[in-house]
Amino acid sequence: NKNHFKDLKKTNLVIQDMLSALKNNNFKGKFFYFSTIGVYGSSFKKKVNENEKINPESFYTLSKQIAEKQCLFFSKNYNLNIIILRICSIFGPGLNRQIIYKIISLLLSSSKIIKLLGNKRDKREFLFIDDLIFILKKIIKLDIKSGIFNIGSNKQYKIYDLINKIQSILKIDKKIFFSNKIKSPNFALLDNSKLNKFINMKRKFDINYGLKKTTQYYKKKN
Q: What is the pLDDT of residue 75?
């Protein structure tokens, strides 16, 4: 948020070049754009579908909204097959950012206290990378040429509870401190109904399996 142009440069200028290249080469394949649950912003609803009003609350999610509009513009005006995927928080081995990675890094550090900027009641919808890949393999084979689709695990977890789960895996017990310096969006769950018409999205997503695999990966690297 300190650099208002960072996301525009890294996201929107790059996606404009890519879409222009697809147009200029008369590309007939499928182009997938990974958007985010964050474009919906805070909501009092239990679930949000793809027709929900967009309300980005950060420069990052604003750039994602703009990128979606870029994709829709090129799809409509140049007959490109563009599929937009709005995805919840992804985690797994090798993703060296976002909250689960940060928690694991802090627990494996020499720090005796886990300090986070948010609130103890903060929660997120998480999906393990292996589950996302499973879903993407299904989507690629579908006879879908364009559109917007939600991809979520259909369950939210409190950050505080995730810390306790990871501590249990690592057999570490550290104090947890939330400073309340950052107000996190109150996201609703992603409604998978639209995508579920094409593939079975009733798969059971095991957060514990994903956390164990991810934690073990970083423990070996530490």
A: 97
Helix (H, G, I), strand (E, B), or coil: what is residue 117? coil
Name the β-bridge partners of 82: 31
The contacts of residue 61 (CB under 8 Å, 6+ apart) are 36, 38, 39, 41
DSSP conformation letters of 129-198: HHHHHHHHHHHHHSS--SEEEEE--S-EEEHHHHHHHHHHHHT---EEEE---S----PPEE--HHHHTT
> pTM here?
0.93
Which region among 31-35, 123-127, 135-139, 201-205 has the lowest average model confidence (pLDDT)?
201-205
Contact yes or no for 93/222 (Cβ under 8 A): no
Q: What is the pLDDT of residue 199?
A: 86
Closest CA to 125 of 14, 209, 48, 181: 48
